[in-house]
Every structure is written in structure tokens, then in C-alpha cells.
Fold each of these.
Amino acid sequence: MTQYDLATLKTITANLSRELEEAKSGKKTSFSFILHELSSSPLVKDEESFQVLVFGGSVHLRALLRKERGRITLLKRESMQQHKFNTAEDFFKVVEEDIDPSVKVVALNLAYPLKPVFEDGRLDGILIEGTKENNFTGLEGKRMGKAIEERIKQKTERNFTVSVANDTACLLLSGFTDVAPDREIAAGIVGTGLNFAIFLDKTHLVNLEAANFDKFPQSEEGKIIDQASNKPGSALLEKEVSGAYLYQHFNTILKRDGFTYPPLSSTLELNQLQENKDSDEAEIAKALFTRSASLTACVVAGITAFKKKDMDFVMEGSLFWNASGYRRTVKELVMQLVPEFNTKFIKIEDSPIFGAAKLVS
């Protein structure tokens, strides 16, 4: 089973940092390096209430907030199981029910691929495609904020403003609520999927689409999983690191090496298995989490080397926060890979809500 020694991890880190430099200068790399421009003036006035809607893969959040003396207060928060959005009509029906009649500004956190558009002083996003079993048929290629504004105007004659960004960008923005102003902020999602985002300056952030980084030695089982996937050759780092795939690595190794242990159906089961210290299968599970954490450490260290600053990483994802020993492994390796910089990891409560709120406040 492939493992990476420190020399290899240093090479991966250097490759990642170099690709970020090249992407910043406009060269094509494995990073999408999607640039977002933020409004330099808030859309929400002081003493005004506004709304945040969060659409993830399976969970939908609806929140009412108020801006008072420059601070944001959460007035009301509702969480519910998300409907399937097969069509534009499915989506609009939920949004129409969601929007509070008292607000004039809505921030939308959408966990789907978006091409950012900055116009009329606000950030919007063009839906590239539906994912996570939500097709959004009829909305592909459309500006989501503008489409919502037009739909509500048609139905109710109300005028209001919608600003839109994807979940990784919103996670990065949530750092403004809990990080000292003199610290450099980045954000990472290491859970079912994988992604990172960074700031270029105070009004520009970058969604890296880090899942697609490919300048690292792919494992043999990773190659098998990639070839059997819906999109071979894409998201190679995610297929080595994330919770959606780690248990598949375990199952592939079992089959290849002739183990009789039953296949797993989730990475949660894999985490439970690694805590059994008296079996060969537990050692394989532990090694898979260590390898995943090693690659995550390379991303963190590579971003830190690219920024050449002490960094605060706002993190989300059950793999990073809950998998046994995962965060400790990442921390220890980052210290070895970029010892000249101080790197901290931060968890922010309700980051999807407060991050989206920073789009407009």
C-alpha cells in the first residue's frame, strides 16, 4: 500500500505551491483558480434585517439576520432536509416559500459549481451544472441571483437583491467573523468532498477547486477507483483523500489482497474499524487515514508556502474534525513541511450562514 515519506510530501507541497503561482499568473494548471470579486460597499444598511439561504447536498438552512452597528446578529435559524431539485421549478418553489417578506437583501450559499459574475455592486454566480443528484434543469448557464430576483418580481412585484457564492467561498468569508484582522485566512473542506479557497486581497477571493490537483503519486487502488468512476481523470486528489472514496480504497485493497473481511459501505465505518487495534484490517484503515491526512497537510502547507505568511485555516468536514487522529496528523506534518510559518485550524459555528452573510454585509 502506497505511503509517502517526508521527502515525497515536501515534493508534493512544492508542486502545489508552484502551481498556485502559475495559476495566479494566468497559466493553466490543475487548479481551476476561480476568481471572485467582492463588493467594496455593503448591500445591507445598518439596522436592517436580511436573509441567508443555504442549499447543500442534503441539508437546507434558512436564517434571518440583522446588522447593528456593523455587527451581525442571528435572529432565527431553521434547518431542514433539502428537497431534490430536478428542475428550475422545483428550486423556485422552495425559494418562494423561503424568502421573508420583510427583507430586501438575500445571500445565497449554493454548494454547486458556479462561475462568479460581479455586476451592479454584488457577486452573483452562473450555475455550471447540477450535482449531488440535483439537476436544476432549466437553470444551467443562468445567473442564480438574477433568476431568483426576476422570478420573485414576476410573482409578487417585489424588488430585492440576491448575492450568490458557493460553499467554499462562503466558508472563507466566515473567517472574517472569528479571525483577528491581521491574520491571513484560508478555508478548507475535508469531508465527503475536498476543496480549499484563499484570498488574493481584501476584495478578491479564489475558489481553487483543489480536488483536481494531480501533481502527486497516485496510489494503485486510487487508479482503480478513478477508472471506475463517472469522470475518470478528474478530481484525482479528492479520490485519494475524501470521505466519499476512502472506504472504497479499503474495499479495493481487501479484494486485491484476498481478505475475507466484508466490504464497508462508508468512511464512518472505516473510522470505527481503525479503533480496533488487534486486526490487520484496522491497520489498513489507520494507514488509509494517515495517507489522506498526509495529502491534506500538503495542501495546507502548499497554500502557506504560496502565501509566505502565518495562516488561519477555517475548516469544515467530518473527516478533518472527527476522524480519529486525522487533525493531529495534519498539524504535525504541516509543522514539518513549513516550519518557518505558524498555521492554525479554526472551526466556526454556523459558518455557512455567517459566511454567506459577509457577501452582503
Amino acid sequence: MEPVSFHLLTAPSPDRQEPLAVQLYRDLLAAIVAGRVPSGRLPSSRAAAVALGLSRNTVNTAYDLLRADGAVAISPGAAPKVLVAPAQPAHPAKRSADLQLSQRGQLWAESSRDRDRIALMTPGQPDEALFPRDEWARLLRRAARQPLGTAFGYPDYAGLPRLRTVLARRLSADRGMVLTPEQILITPGTQASLTLIALALASPGDRALIEDPGYGGARAAFVGAGLTLAPLPVDREGANPTGTPPARLIYLTPANQYPLGHRLSLSRRQAVIAQADRHNSVLIEDEYDSEFLWHGRETAALQGQAPERTVALGTLSKALMPGLRLGWMVAPPALAAPLAAAHRALGLAANVHAQAALADLIDSGRYRAHLMRIAARYGERGRMLAAAARALPGVSADDPEGGVQLAIHLPEGAEAGCLAALHRAGFGTAALSSYCLQARLSGLVSGFADATSERVARFAGILRDQLG
């Protein structure tokens, strides 16, 4: 092979992603490893800079990187001396590898949901225009200026003490939960909480009962942890545990069933708790959309009836925005400390400044005012979408009792065509069938938090054209 000399070096290209000095470093290291420096020395930085049309600073930076790798030795006034090359190439230009995901990784990848694109009226997506930007910015600035004390490091990994205290007070007063601040863990969101539960409270092969149709995020967390899923049928009274097999985990969205929007009736609540008592199951109560309930009185949390075996989950994704990555978990008293240890081991902490800002927002009463303001808007938009859907031939949709999405039932065979047409038009609608394990439902799940009269009219027009 040709020896490396200043007139044979290829100049780095500004079109490549890496800085010029890094490009030169990698090219030179490849030459050294390949044995293309038989003279044992590289050109001086001045000669190389002239030959390549680069600054001496760029060349010197590349040489310093080589020295840090132990590839060359540099002495004042002398060209860099090449040291012994490694036996195996350290940075080959190409290397084939048969790397694959683990079985758990493959299950997680297969269970992933298509949420990477920004689209109109996506299920679970709040309206960004209603986010209280000025208020949140003020609270974040205040939080960033204050000393954090123990929260600066790791002692408060499970959550900022003040936020846990404020949340405990709110959940007790508003949701009827029985808890202490020490039972609360602050997480990056419900998906992180579900992963923690699946890994820490169940073993591979254990059974998890999950609502059918139900939340895909819970399905992904449980399947990824190696659990076996069993359907928990849903009707207008919510989840029905009658005839279901024993399970280690029972996952529910009792306040506002996702995606159908039904509330869990009192008799069903009692049946679910009795089932959990019989089989020593862990109840997982996902407080999905519990902030937005517009029909009748708000129902108390299931956790208040069975605090010793219920893990309650909540998130700020709908009330504020998903990008905050803030959620919470209320653990049973006996599991609070071990779950806190698992929470830390898995690295599921949330940003401390965001926690401080949220604590201020809740404690001041402005969070409640914000919820009332946006809930009124969302309620109007949900009813507007439901009315437009019901006006279509063969379509049914109930006025939503809460939440930020609506289940729309279509005639048999219409789901795929309607879904494809809506996606082409930029809507983030999901197939109702994709939420099912064994249930045979055909339709759509559409968000409405960002709905406008124009968007709803366009949405309905697309469905009308598809339904003929």
C-alpha cells in the first residue's frame, strides 16, 4: 500500500457531518492501522496543512486526538512518530456485525406505536395552543434560581418532596385516594411507570389482564417484560372481570375507559377488587383523562377502595403537554420503598426544575383554574366531533363523557379505507381494531383536543366520501 505522506493525504470534506479535524483524525488512524506509514512518521503539521488546504489548528487538533489514542507521540519541533499499531483495527472503515435485539427488545419493537409523525386530531394529544406558556416560563425561571438542597443530587430521586406533598394533598381531596407523600414516585410519564411495574412486580410468564379494547402502551410494557396477556372484556359498565383467569396484574382505566370512554360502575369496581383479593393480584389504576369529565359527578379513584393492592398512575401529558415528560405513581404502602429502589435502578427520574414548577402551579390553585378552562374547550370540541360523526350513514359515536379522544364505530369493512384516507389528509386517527386483543370492533379513534369546525367538517367529508 502507498505510504502516507503530505502529498498523498486526501483533504477532509465540509459536506461530511463530522468536524474537519475529526475527519482527518479518523483517516489518519485508518492509515496507521492499515500499515500505510512505513516511515514511522506523519508529515509535520505545517506541511500537512499546506498540502490539504487546512489550518494548522485543524491539523494539530487531529494530531492531538491521535496522541490521546496512543497512536502517535509528539515532540516539540519533530514530526509525529507513529507508535505500535494495535493488533486489531480500532476504527475500520467498514465492519459487518450480526447484532440483534434481545427477545425482550424485539417484543418492545414489535409493540411500538406509530406516534412519530405530527398529525391533526391524534388520540391523546392536547391542544398546544392552550398550554400556559407565560405562566410555565415564569415558574421555571423561579425554580432555576432557587437553591435545590438535597434535590440537587440523588437523595430525592423518587421525586421532589414538595411536589409529592402537594400531589398527595390534591389526590386525596380531588380523587379520594388514601396515601402519604412517601407513596408517590415521580416518573417521566405513564409509559415509564408501566415499565417499572411490569419489571418490578411481575416475572416473565406471569399473566396480565388488560382491557379489551385497551391502551396500547400498557400492552407494549407488559409484552416487553415477557408477560402473557389475557383480555378483560369492556362494555358500557367498563371492564368486566367475570370469567377471566387469575392474573398477577390487572390493568384498568376506570375513570374514563380508553378508548371507549365508559366509566367503571360501582358493581364492577367491587367485582374487580374481589377478583384481585382472591388471586392476590396487583391492581393498576391508570387515571387516564380523569381530569376531563363532563357528564355527571366525578367518580372517586379505585385506589381509595383498595389502597393496599392498587398502584395508581397519572400523567401531565393531557392537562399540560406530553413533552414535559412528567407523571406520577402511587404505590401501595408495603411496596413504596422497594419500588422507589427499582425506580432509581432503572433511571426513571424526572427533571427537578419541572417538578418544582409543577408544585408551584398546583399549590397556587392555577393548575385547577387551567384545567377548568381547557376542559370546557375540550368538552365542546368532543361533542362537535361526535355530532358530525353521527350524521354520517351507518356511523355511531356517543358524546364523550371525558377525555380527549372519541371512539367512532363504522360499518363492517370500512375501517381500512377510511383510516388510509384520513392519514393521507394529515389526520392522526387510529384504527379501533388496533386496540383489541380478541374483541371484534371496527371503527376509528380520533382525538379532538385540537379540533376546529373546519377540521371536523373536513374529517366528516373524508368519511362521507369513503362510505359512499
Amino acid sequence: MWRRLKRLGAAQLLDGLVALPFDARNKEQLEWVADQVIESGGRASVWIGQPGSGTDELGIISSLSAGIAEEYRAVIAEAASTRDADPASRRRVLARLRRELHRIRYRDYFPPPEADQARRAVNGLASVVEVPS
């Protein structure tokens, strides 16, 4: 279940307690996960709350952003290391990195500077791959 929540962009605050920015998409997904848990014989509920202070909110945002930034840095590094690969490998990696950027953006509620850097890195790799022969 944690993997599914992480794919939505959740931050684990404590064992069994996660935070996720509130929007209709996330609410629907969490209700779906809770239904699956209940159908499997477990207990689950979705609670909607808010941090008790601005400091708590900033801490959650920082946690969410740090994880996403790390994922963007991995994309940047792979795009850079692939520029000198053979053409077939560059095409495969480019396609995968484009899909990975899409998956990351889906969970990126508070875009860090690495988001633009990753897009530029993938576009740079594309310019090498898509050069007319």
C-alpha cells in the first residue's frame, strides 16, 4: 500500500500516518485504497486535516520537495551520462526518461529547481538523439 501512496506523492510522517496535498484526485485515490484495505478484511479510513502550524506545513512541504528533487537529480544524471552512448541506447533512454519525467510531474506538488533542470537535460538529450542525419 505504501508504494501506491508514494506514487501519489505522499510523505510518511509516522508509522501509519501519511500526508498528501489535498485535491479531488488524491481524495479519490485514497478512498479507493481504503476500499481495497476494507475489502481485504482490514480497517482503513481517510481523514482530511491540516498541519497545526506554518512550521509543520513547511516541514511537510520540504519533505515532499526533497524526495521529488532527488528523483529529478537522477533523471539529470542519467540524461548526462547517456549523451555519449550509442544511438539506439540514447533513443531507449530518452523515451524512458520522458516517461519518468511524466511520472514525477504527476506527484510534484511543490516543484523544486531541479524540475526545470531535468526538463532541460532531457531536452538536451533529445537534441542529440533527434539530430537529422
Amino acid sequence: MRFKNYKNSHSNDNRIYSKQEMLDLSIRELKDRADEFVAQYKVLGLPNEEELKNSSNVIWIDEYTKDEGTKVKGHWRSKPGESNSDANNTAKSSQMDNTDDSEDLTERQKYKESEEYKKEYREREKQKSIERKDPEEIAGVKRGEPKTFYEMMQQGVNPMYQSQEDSSGQYSTNCQSCNVACELLMRGYDVEAESYENPVTYELAKIDNSAYLDSITGKKCIPEEINLQEVNCAKYIDETINVGERYEFSYCITPEKNNYSATEAHTVFMTRMNNGKLLIYDGQNGEIAYDKTETKSYIDSRVNDDNTVYFPRLLRVDDKKVNPYYTDKVVRASGKSRKH
């Protein structure tokens, strides 16, 4: 669940900074903690105080003074849960099922895919696979039974995230490969994401959306850039995505549009479920935002900050051909040995 068992990959601490708290920090404090803030941003973004107050997965620590006399301001901390090695697997399922008796079932936890829907989905996806001319095999994995969105999330695509084997953080910066793995699982390829140290994954990060080709022209896809001066990003996305469509939503934080060396970027997977609810899934860390309120909060916390330059982009992918140069290299068979 959002915020639960969070641990900052830089500080190894479970403190969570809100947007308001960061605005109150001095310039010196901001510089001193920059790496810590970036690590949190990649996983949680910058939640506002209201979101934290309304969450049962965080606790507030009142201001206190250490033995040596140092004052520590009041702050939020994540509630502990399962061990980090299990966190990603839990994120894929506990957010969708009632695994916490202390909380009421949310609307997204009540939602279940019927067997009839699963059957209809697989039939539709198999027909779309023929129309897209999907290859029989990707990354050495033969095409099999397509997975629904919930089945894909429950399996997950990034099992090495924050594991003991990920000491260098290569599975905490591979969001571009995670998105591709999400889409391929839903097409019937049983794959998971490669790490960021994979050279083609690194290349894809610099020219995102290149894993897909236009189904008609066969040319590289050009994502739609969302002009924040003209529209509200969350509202635009909510009005754009139709039931059953699947999208990559990417954004970067940069002082210069084409200066990728100065960019912090991220990309997540989106769809509108058959019950009409918009859903955001971060395949990298298992985070989920469901329905209009949660998705709006998720997007607003990341791309609607007037003090930063953002370039949000949206690309529909379920109707695209795959680009084998990338898809054969940025994913691998699920459960394959992680040793390179």
C-alpha cells in the first residue's frame, strides 16, 4: 500500500518528506539532503500534508530533542511492514486485495475481474495480436496466454527491486524496461524487466517510447506532449484514456528540454479498467493509483509544480507494433537467472 514499508534508498531511513515540509527547508538543508529527496521522489514523489494525514500507513513523530541537545522537527515516517525483499511482491497484490484487517476495503480492493471478463479479454487480445503482427517470440520467450491488467500487476515485472542483489540500484532506475515488460505480459509474453546496467535499457532511457513502432507506417512512435500551459495534466489524461486502452505516461524534470544530462525522468503504465476507473501502475516499484482522486493526486504531485520545468508525454501502446531492437533486449524470461 502507498507509503507502507517505504525506505529511502539513499539514507536507508523511513522518513517521508511532504511537499510543504520541503518548501519550509533552508537552501542549505535542501542542498545537504538533495540525494535523499531525489531517492524519495523516484518512489513516492512529493505527497502533500493532506494525503499523509489521511493515510493509515504513516505515523507522525512529534518534535523532540536528542541526548546531545540537537532538536529534531516533527515529521512523517512510514509504518513498517514486511521485509524489503518481500516489498515488491506485496505491492503487486496487497494493494488489490484485503490483506490489512485494520483498514476498510477500498473501492479498488473490492474490484475483481470475472472469469467471463478474463475470457473476453484474452479473445480480444489474441485478435489484436494478429492485427499488430506480434512476433511469435520476444527475448527468447514464446507468446502464450495474454494476462489482464490485474494479473500482470499481481505477477509483477521487476522482482529485483530493492532486493539484496540490487545494491547498486540498477533495478530502481529501470522504469523504461518495466513499462515494456508490463505491455508484453499483457500480450502473452512471460517476461520481466532487465536492469538499468543493460546497455540497451540505458539507451531506451534516453530515447523513451522507442520500443514501439506505428502499426501502419512502421516508423518510430512520437508521443503526445501535454502542454501544461493550456491544460491540467490529470484532467487531460482522464479525458483521453478510454476503457481497455493502455498508455505509457512519461515526464522529466529538467531546466532544458533537450538536455537529458540534467534530467530526472520517470515513466509509468496507465489504463482505464473495464469498470471505467483510471489506473496508474508503476511497474518499477509496484505503486498503484486508482480512480480519479488517486490518479489526480499522483499526477499533480509530480508534474504540476510551477517551480520546475516538466515535459509530460503520453503514448498509447496497445495498438502499436513492438520494435525488436529494444524489446528483445530490455526484458528477459520471468525468473531467469539475474547473474549477468
